[in-house]
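Design review, sub-item: ligand-bound model
Attendees: FS, YL, KQ
YL presented the inputs for the nicotinamide-adenine-dinucleotide complex:
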Amino acid sequence: MSASTARKIVAETATTYQNLIGGKWQPASDGRTVDMVSPSDGLAFAKIARGTKADVDAAVKAARHAFEEGAWSKLTAVERGRLMTKLGEAILANHEELSQLEARDCGKPMKQARADITAAARYFEYYGGAADKVHGDTIPFLDGYMVTIMREPKGVTGHIIPWNYPAQMFGRSLAPALAMGNAVVMKPAEDACVAPLRMAQLAQEVGFPDGALNVVTGIGEEAGAALAAHPGIDFMSFTGSPEVGTLVQKAAAENHIGCTLELGGKSPQIVFEDADFDAVVPVVVNAIVQNGGQTCSAGSRVLVQKSIYDKFVALVVARFKLLRVGSHAMDLDCGPLISENQRKRVHGFIDRAKKDGIPVLAEAQLADGVPSGGFYVAPVLFGPVPRNNSLACDEVFGPVLSIIPFEDEADAVKLANATEFGLVAGIWTRDGGRQMRVAKKMRCGQVFVNGYGAGGGIELPFGGVKKSGHGREKGFEALKEFSHTKTIVFKHG
Ligand code: NAD
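KQ shared the predicted structure:
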């Protein structure tokens, strides 16, 4: 069957997903749609609504109603927590279906998609349990006074998420906001958003009141920009590129609201000469091929002490050569990238690095039987990468690993902190004193010592400094972002 025939058949049979606004599934106000393409073969398999400014406005109004007077506003924290726990259970009960949706939508290997759906459920379990555990405080004040500090929801929160982990991001962004009692409006990414739509349906099925959770799909510059700029939003949570993050922050400033920005990174893994090589090598390789390198916290720079450079690099090269790349269904080490645009962008980095004369230490191969038309890029290992080269400084967002040598501890710290980003760092050494000294000096939001958890750990506060953004997600920190304090002063005489 030719690609054009396949495209025609799929277009005719494709599922069409709608927006969820105020408890009703509805098409875009002007009826337009966007084709959803599977990165594994480049074929459209579904359509989503191309949400408009009017759709966003309706969703924000529905959320406002739910927050101020609807059934959602009347739930106690315990009841909210129960609903969220039920949603976590529903996600687990539909685990395989959601995993298949996520894998086809993103091109990610099935095992990654399955892990992502488990994590999405976990966000609702964790924050469901936390909903009734956010306490206030009292403050000793003047004689004759009693002062209490309450923690309240922000109101209507906006959530713009990217395409790399749609299912996980649905949980990561929405669960803490809902736990605090906010009503939410989400704009998922146009490149991948089918699993979040199915999870929104599950939220309805388990009994979330109308308007508590709204989803408007569509194009970033249209529905995304409309949501970011909407005057009815009380707080905005954004994950994506630094460029769009700047626009979202400017829109938030115009409306005098706060926002969290999670904008990616160029995260280093520092390998000292006393590291346990057997433990390090598989982790540093996995940290760049996981999700095709399209992970904000991908370990994209490996900094290696000069005294062990040749020996260590030989082990990484051997491991890299074993990597296998294929479609989501083939379920190998690495899938395709999300889109043709992303494939071209990543190839641009690879071609420029080759032109700059940076040695290619290893290049993985596509497996036999990879479908034509997919957006594949074979992982590439470069080294030694000069410190001022783009590969050492810029976020590639693809399976490209840069190895950079360093002299000693002071040099390692300087090099690790030398990019504009600051999201995660890994430190590999058996020396306890060095572990603590270096961890304290890292300018980033998360540090792993003798391990690396790209994207992992729902309980662990996560977020960046510098161009990686600001604000914290995950853990109890996220509950603080989606709430504010109110001070009540009682004069009792
Ligand atoms: P993006 O920032 O363009 O898209 C992220 C989200 O923002 C999507 O939902 C998109 O629809 C929305 N959006 C786009 N333009 C908007 C606008 N003007 N106003 C409001 N919302 C808008 O990211 P991308 O194009 O999908 O990816 C580009 C690069 O961003 C990647 O190569 C990568 O470097 C980075 N990225 C980072 C992360 C991360 O987790 N930090 C995730 C995805 C992409």
